[in-house]
Structure formats: structure tokens, C-alpha cells
Amino acid sequence: MSNMVFSAFVCLFFVCCICCSRAMPTSLNQEAVNDRPVIGILTQLVSDDVMKPFGRTYIPSSYVKYTESGGARVMPIKLTLTTAEYENIFKKINGLLFIGGAVDLETSDYARVAKIFYRLALMANDRGDFFPIWGTCMGMQLLTVLVAGENLLANTTAENIALPLNLTTEAHSSRMFAGFPDELMKALTHEALTGNFHHYGLTVETFLENEKLHNFFSLLSTNIAKNGAHFVSTIEGKRYPFYGVQWHPEVNRFQWDRRLNFPHSSHAVQLSSLLAQFFVDEGRRSLHHFDNPEEEDSSLIYNYTPVYAGNFTGYEQLYFF
Ligand SMILES: *[C@@H]1O[C@H](CO)[C@@H](O)[C@H](O)[C@H]1NC(C)=O
Ligand SMILES: *[C@@H]1O[C@H](CO)[C@@H](O)[C@H](O)[C@H]1NC(C)=O
Ligand SMILES: *[C@@H]1O[C@H](CO)[C@@H](O)[C@H](O)[C@H]1NC(C)=O
Fold first, then answer.
1. So which residues are the signal peptide here (predicted)?
2. N or C: which end of the chain has fewer CB within 10 A?
3. Gap from CA of 269 to ligand 3 centroid (Å)
4. Cβ neighbours of 265 (radius 10 Å)
5. CA distances from 96 to 91, 103, 274, 286 (A)
6. How many angstroms is it from 254 CA to the middle of ligand 3?
């Protein structure tokens, strides 16, 4: 069982899966804007033998570049800190990105730390302290586990395949796609702009049957897996600024392995750019901040140097911690 559960979250190890608000911002946050947002990225546990010599946790550079491209800076968050230390970090960052990977979503250190931040984010948003979370691939799966309080994932294999999105009616009134030009909305449903690298996911049936999930999230798109299962591919929180995509917006601009079906067309690049900007704009509404410039400077990803990994993984560059 634990083996199955483990593999359930594999989002293709070498690509590894590179998101509530109150519907309305509080009047305070509506006026105040933070133009120096910092997005936290939880480091991911290394599960791949070829990566082990470099460190215990990592972040693919593609997620960092993606976040930076939206106008934010990145703070890597290690998995070895105490709850008090995470509570302290939460007061300083303006949003959180759960990246892809291959770890147990209930028992791993990654899941433990994610749960701490998820609870802090729920409480913060409840008291009008806007704080967005984005989950990509396994990060989206993780959000569904956190919201449902149980692991409801099933085989929805779509591995190394780019797909158009089957948008729901709700997608057209969503926050995530609100700024998209009509031409891109059309391309999204006709062109293969979304890269999929996963074995497991949430079926549409499970989503619709589970009250916790469908009360919490709006379903924005679905897709069909290799086994015919319809799976949830894009969700956004109804009340909370929490967003999830089963696919990988960051690969469209920042990953180039020739063996992998990364969408690189002009529309694919535009999709990736607009989503990065959307999420960072959500982060601008958070007024969390560091205590002083020295603390901020020493917390950022700029203190680390990525390693060239194009000759032993599907990534070009990785940060190790
Ligand atoms: C698109 O989603 C609808 C339900 O929203 C479903 O009935 C239809 O079969 C789906 N089509 C594809 C091609 O996924
Ligand atoms: C998932 O379904 C696909 C397609 O039917 C199949 O090839 C694969 O072996 C299944 N994976 C697991 C872990 O059951
Ligand atoms: C990958 O390339 C780096 C630098 O070019 C080199 O040091 C390293 O040994 C290579 N790794 C493999 C597995 O080929």
C-alpha cells in the first residue's frame, strides 16, 4: 500500500512536475499593493538516485525563473525547520508555490511542511490577510489532499503528452483566466498548450462526489487520461486564493529536453507568462514583509547557485539544498 501510495504521486521523476481568497479582498488590501513580493517555494525531496549526490532537497530552476518572470523574488523553504520557524517565515512571504515531485502526500516531510503553511494560509485569509497558494502537478494533488483531508487520487496517467484544455463554463468567469485575450482562450481549447507528466490525479467523478472538494474549488478544466478517465486539470479556490494545475505552465518557457513534449509555441509561451504574472499579482496583495533588508537578502534564492543538470535529468538546471 505505501508503495502504491508513494508511486501515486510520481509526476514523472525526471520532469517532476515542475496554488482562496475571500472572493473579495478586504478594503485594506485592495488599496495597499506590495511591489516587492517574495514567493516561497518549498524545496522538494530528492527521490532520484542520480540527484542524490548533490543534496537532500532541490528546486528545478524552471519554477524559479517562472516565478521571477511574474515580477517576484523567490525564497526557498527547506523541510528541516521547526513549526515556529515556518510560522515566522509565513509572516515574511507573500505567496507559496507547491511544485511537482514524487513524494508521499501524507507522510513525507514535504507533506508535513505543506500542511503547516496550508493551515496558516487558511487562517490568514479568514482574517483578511490575503495569502495565495499555487500548486503545480503534484502540488495540485497535494492541495486536494489538504482540502479533502484524505488522499483521493487515482490512476489518471497522462505522461509526456501536451493537451488542449477542456474548459468548463466556470473557466470563463474565473479569476485565473480573467485577463486572457479571447484569442488565447480559444487557443487553450484547440491547441496542445499544456504539458502533462503525471500518473495519478483526481477524477472528475471523485471531485464532483466529494463535498469538501467541490465546495472549496471551482473546476476550470478537465482532460482525458490514457485509461479514459476524465481528470481534473485546473482548479481555483472559491473563497480562497488557492490555485491548482495538473499540468506544467513553467515548462513552456523554461524546459527544453528534446525527449519531452514541452509546448513552446507562441501561445504556449503567452499562457505561461500570463499565469506567472497572475499569481505574482495575487502575491502583491499580501503585505507580509521581512523585518529588515539584511534578513530579506539572506533569505532569497540568489544566495544559491543552480547546477547544470541537462546531461543527467530532464531539467536544464537544478538548485540543491
Ligand atoms: C469535456 O467536459 C465535459 C464536461 O464538462 C464532458 O462531458 C466532455 O466529455 C469533455 N470532453 C473532452 C474531450 O474531454
Ligand atoms: C494506469 O493506467 C494506464 C493506462 O491504462 C496503464 O498503462 C498503467 O499501467 C496504469 N498504472 C497503474 C500504476 O495502475
Ligand atoms: C554533466 O556535465 C557536467 C559539466 O559539464 C560534468 O561535470 C558531469 O560529470 C556530467 N554528468 C554526467 C552524468 O554526465
1. 1-23
2. N
3. 29
4. 14
5. 12, 18, 18, 11
6. 20
Has residue 1 been placed in a domain?
A: no
Contact 254, 64 (CB under 8 A): no
- List the domain range (segments joined by +) for residue 274: 38-320
- Would you say residue 28 lies in a domain? no
Catalytic residue among 11, 19, 20, 137: 137
For residue 16, being part of any structural domain is answered with no
CA nearest ligand 3 atom 5, residue:
308
Q: Is residue 17 domain-resident? A: no
Q: What's the pTM value of the predicted model, to 2 decimals? A: 0.91
Give, for ligand 1, the residue of 194, 203, 220, 230 to mutate: max count of ligand atoms closer than 8 Å to Cβ. 230
CATH number at residue 213: 3.40.50.880
Query: pLDDT tens per residue, the chain (321 residues)?
Result: 334 444 444 454 434 443 333 334 444 445 689 999 999 999 999 988 999 999 999 999 999 999 999 999 999 999 999 999 999 999 999 999 999 888 889 899 999 999 999 999 999 999 999 999 999 999 999 999 999 999 999 999 999 999 999 999 999 999 999 999 999 999 999 999 999 999 999 999 999 999 999 999 999 999 999 999 999 999 999 999 999 999 999 999 999 999 999 999 999 999 999 999 999 999 999 999 999 999 999 999 999 999 999 999 999 999 999
Residue 248: active-site member: yes
